[in-house]
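If your schedule permits, I should be very grateful for your opinion on a structural question. I have a record of one protein: its chain in single-letter code and its fold written as discrete structure tokens. Kindly check, if you would, that the fold set down in the tokens agrees with what the sequence suggests. I remain grateful for any guidance, and I place the record below:

***
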Amino acid sequence: METQRLLSGFCSNPTIPPVRNTKKPFFVASPPTSSASFYQPRKWVSYRTCHFVPQRVGSKQRLKCKNGVENVEDDAISHGKDLKNGVRRKKLAVFVSGGGSNFRSIHEASLQGSVHGDIVVLVTNKRGCGGAEYARDKGIPVVLFPKTKEEPDGLSPSDLVSVLRRFEVDFILLAGYLKLIPVELIRAYPRSIVNIHPSLLPAFGGKGYYGMKVHKAVIASGARYTGPTIHFVDEHYDTGRILAQSVVPVLANDTAEELAARVLREEHGLYVKVTEALCEERIIWREDSVPLIQSKENPSEFR
């Protein structure tokens, strides 16, 4: 495959198998006492990914600049071997279509140490967007997806999956990526792709609801509250399981721009907190397939 030739030299094992996921039982010793916590049924499962140990093959390996994969030096890519409380440092892929302010917030949190993971690759459908420029400035590899008439160098869905596996990606974070995620990617990374949406889903979600259109619709509806939602990604727009939400009041004289600015500030903090939980393996799946975030301070509490 062309992608394998492009990435030869990046990984010493050209036939890395797909990442498989398992469910392990998780038991709670006693119900929480905090009124802010969720009621817990008797059976829980924690979701863990089965990881492969990366192999470093040199400090100056390069990817060829073909088919949407830009040149990067191997020493700019984290290999994630360090452990924190027995948890391996995770490798993250971020997808953007615009300025990438959430991407920047997560990257800064990673550099500062609050996120136990590294952004090892950025995927974009717009090679000249602000998020892609920021990634290049920081030495993060940039991948173009999908292949379109406007972007003929973009990757196909199967090639994108191959590239992400070469980077040994654990989680995919959509941060203002406006294209529908292909089913091939969803199947390759089950329960490992999350998206942020600027409304309290399921309200004001779905195809056509993005960016300023969401905030205009919220104001026109007379809703008194809005806010960002982070959810797992399925094969449709904004219908995956909700993982986290944050409430932002809609003021009487708000413009869409003013509301958007307040929601975006809330997005930055929420996405960092969720990414911290993902990297620390604190996402717990209830037996009815509802994901909850386990408290770092008190493991018997969930948010």
Summary: The chain is about 25% helix and 20% strand. Residues 1-65 have pLDDT under 50 and may be disordered. The chain has one domain: 2-29+36-50+62-293. The first strand starts at residue 21 and ends at 26.
